Amino acid sequence: MRRVRGMKAAALLLAGSMALAACASDETDAGSGSGSGDGGSAAGEELMVGLAYDTGGRGDKSFNDSAYAGVEAAIEELGGEVQELSPNDDGSDRAELLTQLAEQGYDPVIGVGFAYGEIIGDIAAEYPETTFAVVDSSVTELGADNLTGLLFAEEEGSFLAGAAAALKSETGHIGFVGGVENPLIQKFEAGYVAGAQAVKPDIIIDTQYISPAGDFSGFGDPARGQIVAQGMFDAGADIVYHAAGGSGQGVFEAAAASGGRAIGVDSDQYETVGDPALQAVIMTSMLKRVDNAVESFITDYSEDAVEGGTDIVNDLSTDGVGLSTSGGQIDDIQAQIDEFKQQIIDGEIEVPAIP
Q1: What gap in Å lies between CA 81 and CA 83, rounded to an integer?
Q2: Superfamily for the 154-287+325-345 domain
Q3: Mean pLDDT of 24-48
Q4: How far apart are CA 35 and CA 16, in angstroms?
Q5: Is the pLDDT of residue 21 over 80?
Q6: pLDDT higher than threshold 60 for residue 27
Q7: CA–CA dist 87, 245 (Å, integer)
Q8: Which residue has the higher pLDDT, 62 or 289?
Q9: How far from 2 is each of 47, 144, 297, CA to CA, in Å?
Q10: DSSP assignment, residue 273?
């Protein structure tokens, strides 16, 4: 039977009696009906996926949910189950999450978010028979042949978001809210600013981060996200783009309160936000297809086709990033967006990854 299995927070005694706190989802069905795929590894064993989330866990309507959607799609096709774990608020237990999943026999094990990049190489070395992947962190210099990096050209998709914002802005003033000020989120900012300036060189662009480097709370604090975005709307911005995970909910709320518009990130947030009042302000979303990357990796694993020690980069040429069209708010500028996309793919526009 095909199934997706979550797990509530559990305590795990590791070496030195270290306590592990981890959050996971309740058990849910991933599919039903007659016939379940053989799935699993190349040896025909049932697929058992371990998924360690980034800050906020499943339910962020963004990055983590996209990763889960990829696992869910793979399991629907291949059969098997998934174990989900989330880090504590400060993320200090990420190594323990990966260790727990490997110890319990989950294979492959996927770390969602760049923060796992600091420790996943060590865990992969301790469990050489387990296949690991990490989203948003390069693995090429780690020397682990059982580890794959799933990367994205966020700056390319964000360039299109910036172009769309500049084309649709009525005030000539837009904003960007980042969750945590680090090189990854700065890629979103860099592309967004470049895209907006490609359309309107003198456009005013406010940029602000919710938390500094090393403080991951900026990805899970909608109240602070709302305060930051509200300041931009009050200053004259009429469109604000967020790359702030769960804090993006606050950006949407600020847009709704101000009569402005917002640009979502990672998932098609017009479809996932839930509240019609917030849905109405989401002009588009910069799609970062974590779901596709995760599903493809699991499929490769099931076919014994994973090439470890390498990075897989998802960009505009592979539709790994792009813009959503739900709601129809950018239909009138789609031709210009498509032209910019092709120029980037053809190398006519080189998008910066650093602000």
Answers
A1: 7
A2: Response regulator (3.40.50.2300)
A3: 46
A4: 45
A5: no
A6: no
A7: 15
A8: 289
A9: 10, 31, 19
A10: S
Type of residue numbered 21: A
Q: What are phi and psi of 332, to 5 degrees?
A: -75, -15
Is the Cβ–Cβ distance between 77 and 37 less than 8 Å?
yes
Contacts of 343 (CB under 8 A, 6+ apart): 349
What's the pLDDT at 320? 94
Phi/psi at 334 (nearest 5 deg)? -60, -35
What whole-number distance in Å separates Cα of residue 279 and Cα of residue 273? 6
**Residue 204, beta-bridge partner list:** 173
pTM: 0.81
Burial of 215 (0-12, 13-18, 19+ CB in 10 A): middle
Give the chain's count of helices (H) and strands (E): 11, 12
Which of 81, 109, 83, 105 has its CA nearest to residue 2?
81
CATH pick for 48-152+290-316 out of 3.40.50.300, 3.40.50.2000, 3.30.360.10, 3.40.50.2300: 3.40.50.2300
Q: List the structure tokens of 50.
A: 């371990």
List b or e across 187-197, with b for residues whose CB sees 16 or more CB atoms inside 10 angstroms.
bbbbbbbbbbb
Each domain of the chain, given as residue ranges in start order, spans 48-152+290-316, 154-287+325-345
Report the relative pairing of strands 48-52 and 132-135 from DSSP bridges: unpaired
